[in-house]
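Hi R.,

Here's the chain you asked about this morning:
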Amino acid sequence: MVARKRASVPVKRVLIVVLACLLPVFACNFPRRPQNPPSLLEEELRLTLTALAISTYSIATPPPSSPDVSAPSPFQGLQTATPDGPPLGTPPAPGQSEVPSLFEYIAQSGDTLSAIAKRFGVEPEHITSPQPIPIEALIPPGQLLSIPSTLGETPYPSALLPDSEVVYSPAAIDFQVQDFVQKASGYLSSYGESLEGEWLTGAQIVQKVAIENSINPRVLLAFLEYRSNWVLGQPKDPNQVDYPIGFYVPDYRGLYKELLLTATQLGMGYYGWRSGMLTMLTFPDGSAARLSPGLNAGSVALQVLFSKFYRQGEWRETLYGPESFTRLYQQMFNDPWARATRSEPLFPMDLAQPPLELPFAPGERWSFTGGPHLSWNSGSARGALDFSPVTGEAICLPSSAWVTASAPGIVARSSQEVVAIDLDGDGYEGTGWVLVYLHLPEPDRVPLGTRIEVDDRLGHPSCERGKSTGTHVHLARKYNGEWIPADGPLPFVLSGWEVEAGNKSYAGSLIRGDQIVTANPGGSQSSVIVR
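And the predicted structure, written out as tokens:
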């Protein structure tokens, strides 16, 4: 068994980092606006959504599919860390190699021109390619780009995990959390917690965090094992029962909340890299390192998570040393890169949003109360929109109005004020397009497994779940487990209205031809929209 290290950094430093991600908790519909607005990245990292839903989602094993051996590898151009090889990602010695004037970069799934330019520290117009480069759309995976090398040599360039091993992707469908935990027979197999009056086993807690946050359960289990020995063995430190991961955040005791923080940190790294907003790693000792611009989002997510616990020297060993996390991961779950060839690229070249309707009936008056904001928590994309019924009913009581289905599909989750509709009809949230509706209380809510058509009733909008000050529905999208931003290469389009994001969360507009509806949490006349 691989030896694992406990964090040696002062508890106060970890607390400061994590508390910055916890305050304030998620506020939907009527956000408070600071007098001096922070930067977009700071604002996103401060917003955290806690404990939203207990999933009734169950996993079944689909028929195996064979990879297309004729297709190009989705990992072309990635330098990967191998568990049995020498430590990778260490900075080269001064003068070891001459920095080239151009960096040859092979586009990865999910890349956009603006994000690549930010990662490499160049202007978009300075990036060239033998083929036309899409300005707004996703760049085809495998396209060769020539980028001025303004950063010089960056440390830690080796990839750690595929994207599909970090998000709740098709790679997770055949993985049974309960079976794995019971077979491992570690402390987790006998652990349980009471959450909102319901007793959940350790395996159920892992599955709950995974499906809520759209994070692969394998990476949660491996990190829990690396930090605490809970999965394959027994905790060595009694304090690990309250803080098995080691965030040590007051009032965030227990496995569920520690795993929630883990998922949040992974998401912050993943989507921060996707957008190009995240370019630096910071460590508890105050040191920093530029993220290598050729990395994939899944590897950056792991680098960010580990940087919350380890000083840079220890961090390098935990990720790239002979007793690394990646070595443990392969021992627990076999080769993640081989598995990813069956599920990546996560975004196919011809990906487009299917036709979607506004989430209410034709002819009804609703208010566009929230422009693009966090889909789920601070570890997700700015992909959600809020709509409130204009009925004259009392604020924050369940409305008589109905939220309706924006597209046909099957209800993959219906619990704890959440409805998730799987549009490809296989019933799994990790494949294809999925719509997530929030703030739908239990009375009249559509049950799990229901096959629905456009405009079928899903439930009533409310204030329930999260911090809300007005009755509304929160609507977000996922594709192959990734939260999709509301604008950008895959814009959110509802009944012909296209979303345009504002310069901060909850701001933005819906545009259709020469018509513009502006988001307003107060529900002014300018925010009213009729389908």
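The chain has eleven helices and 23 strands.

Let me know if you need anything else.
M.
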